[in-house]
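TICKET: design request
STATUS: open
ATTACHED STRUCTURE:
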């Protein structure tokens, strides 16, 4: 029988108390991870994810951390190493959709908030994750990496959306950070990639839709199949990118969107 994709690896997922992050944390555990660090601001959601993993026979710990705070991000990486001895896979996924508005008159406060949560957080997480990964030996034999990072961007990382300047700029920025770190640390045996989800049925998406069926129909209509993605479909891409089976994939911006951006 083939070993799980994450066999023996230590994984950390931010925003793992909900949606795509939760599905990814659960899949890392199901694929044999030695331990999963579940990071979120939302304590209830994060603890639920850990309970789900443990109920399925996996190992996980919850850490409440705000990924916009450098001391908390540093403590998050330290917690992974203190708990499980190393950090093999990091999914920098926490994010917010933000409140949209016309460019003219757009609030600087809202711009700064979304850039901090979606972009500065990825910079901070990578800074501290790379510092740890460069100090450890590779796992997994000939194709083993010293560490692998996957950042969550968005279809909005490659195309524009009117009224969402902050979100679009933050998700384009995540791709720039991904490519820069991928080049800088390739020779150290570390890979860095990004996933670009299309419309996915998560609590964030449900918050955006509210009780307005017209918005739900519009979100579904963005996808060629007419249906939104499921968080589990994004998790598959992340766990594969982190695995040794993706050993030649680096600096990649992988659309996982049912073909949305191909139209
Ligand atoms: N759902 C979609 O359609 C979609 C599409 C494209 C990209 N994305 C991206 O996917 C990622 C996950 O989104 P989701 O839909 O699963 O959302 P979600 O709201 O279900 O989950 C996001 C989690 O991030 C956490 N979080 C937010 N700010 C944080 C902070 N400062 N520190 C720590 N945790 C924080 C939240 O508490 C929440 O649990 C986001 O980066 C989002 O931009 C989502």
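STATUS: resolved
RESOLUTION: sequence designed for all positions
ATTACHED SEQUENCE:
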């Amino acid at each position: 029988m083939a070993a799980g994709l994450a066999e023996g690896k230590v994984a950390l997922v931010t925003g793992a108390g909900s949606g795509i992050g939760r599905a990814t944390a659960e899949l890392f555990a199901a694929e044999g991870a030695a331990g999963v660090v579940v990071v979120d601001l939302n304590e209830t959601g994060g603890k639920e994810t850990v309970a789900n993993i443990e109920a399925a026979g996996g190992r996980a710990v919850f850490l409440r951390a705000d990924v916009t705070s450098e001391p908390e991000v540093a403590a998050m990486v330290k917690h992974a190493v203190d708990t499980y001895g190393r950090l093999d896979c990091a999914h920098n996924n926490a994010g917010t959709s933000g409140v949209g508005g016309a460019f003219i008159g757009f609030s600087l406060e809202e711009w700064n908030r979304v850039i901090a949560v979606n972009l500065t957080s990825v910079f901070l997480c990578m800074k501290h994750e790379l510092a740890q990964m460069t100090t450890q030996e590779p796992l997994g034999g000939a194709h083993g990496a010293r560490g692998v990072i996957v950042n969550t961007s968005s279809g909005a990382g490659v195309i524009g959306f009117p009224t969402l300047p902050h979100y679009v700029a933050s998700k384009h920025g995540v791709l720039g950070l991904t490519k820069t770190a991928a080049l800088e640390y390739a020779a150290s045996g570390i890979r860095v990639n990004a996933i670009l989800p299309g419309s996915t049925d998560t609590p964030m998406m449900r918050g955006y839709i509210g009780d307005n069926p017209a918005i739900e129909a519009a979100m579904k209509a963005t996808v060629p199949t007419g249906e939104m993605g499921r968080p589990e479909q994004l998790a598959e891409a992340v766990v594969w990118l982190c695995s040794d089976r993706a050993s030649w994939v680096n600096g990649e911006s992988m659309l996982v969107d049912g073909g949305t951006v191909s139209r």
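CLOSING REMARK: The pocket of nicotinamide-adenine-dinucleotide is lined by residues 14-15, 17-21, 40-42, 45, 66-68, 93-96, 117, 152, 154, 197, 199-200, 202-205 (CB under 6 Å). The chain has a mean pLDDT of 97.
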